[in-house]
Design a protein that fits this description.
The complex is a heterodimer.
Chain A lengths: L3 E4 L2 E5 L4 E7 L6 E7 L6 E7 L4 E4 L2 E6 L4 E6 L8 E8 L7 E3 L3 E6 L1
Parallel strand pairs in A: 2-11
Antiparallel strand pairs in A: 1-3, 3-8, 4-5, 4-9, 6-7, 7-8, 9-10, 9-11
Chain B lengths: L4 E3 L2 E4 L5 E6 L6 E8 L3 E9 L2 E5 L6 E5 L5 E5 L8 E8 L11 E2 L3 E5 L1
Parallel strand pairs in B: 2-11
Antiparallel strand pairs in B: 1-3, 3-8, 4-5, 4-9, 5-6, 7-8, 9-10, 9-11
The chains are: A mainly beta, B mainly beta.
């Protein structure tokens, strides 16, 4: 079945620096890759997503890139702020029908002021 | 639009009991998925309901079940609770339609279940 790996498990950056989180997936049939941000005591919040027919997508300070051949996708956060501190999860869809996703184990991002 | 709501937010139960959790999706969303989140196993898919029918199911024992009502609200039930069932149970809704394709999904705040 699908397996999603995520690195690093923890990441500390200085405010204003960039942060990059990388994920790999195993199922070549996966075609939708969302990223979620989870703050303490809250549910995961969808922050950006990308489909397999697109190589890159950007939304203000957040961007996601996808390399289908290598089965890699990455989250890039520029000009980090303390409020970016949270756990970030990547996910990959299973198949092309229905809402069935496999999630990575998460990355705890700390932005130091 | 109001987001996904889940009730109750916190629950304490004893081993052997059963529990029912409730989820109201975003207005207009007909797909509801349930996930279990634990520190050890992370986020794991339980099942998805669309138009009152279970469409997908994860790898969980039959003690975990769910249903969806005609207004798209969903409930999940866990019978004969075990200590290992302690987790954050998350509900997610999606604007998915009846045809193939994968859609974005939006999570609720979760129900924290503690089994003692």
């Amino acid at each position: 079945g699908e397996n999603v790996e995520q690195h690093p498990s923890t990441l500390s950056v200085q405010e204003g620096d960039s942060a990059v989180i990388k994920c790999t997936y195993s199922d070549s049939a996966s075609n939708y890759f969302p990223w979620y941000k989870q703050e303490l005591g809250k549910g995961p919040q969808l922050i950006i997503d990308i489909r397999s027919n697109v190589g890159e997508k950007k939304d203000q300070r957040i961007a996601v890139t996808l390399n289908k051949t290598a089965k890699h996708f990455s989250l890039h956060i520029t000009e980090t702020q303390p409020e970016d501190s949270a756990v970030y999860f990547c996910a990959a869809s299973i198949g092309n029908y229905g809402q069935n996703f496999v999630f990575g184990p998460g990355t705890r991002l700390s932005v130091l002021p | 639009k109001a987001g996904v709501t889940q009730t109750p937010r916190y629950l304490i139960k004893t081993r052997g009991q059963q529990v029912t959790l409730s989820c109201s999706p975003i207005s207009g969303h007909r797909s509801v998925s349930w996930y279990q989140q634990t520190p050890g196993q992370g986020l794991q898919f339980l099942f998805e309901y669309f138009s009152e029918t279970q469409r997908n199911k994860g790898n969980f024992p039959g003690r975990f079940s769910g249903r969806q009502f005609s207004n798209s609200r969903s409930e999940m039930n866990v019978s004969t609770l075990e200590l290992g069932d302690s987790a954050l149970y998350l509900c997610a809704s999606s604007p998915r339609g009846p045809t193939s394709g994968v859609y974005e999904q939006y999570f609720g705040p979760g129900t924290r279940l503690t089994v003692t």
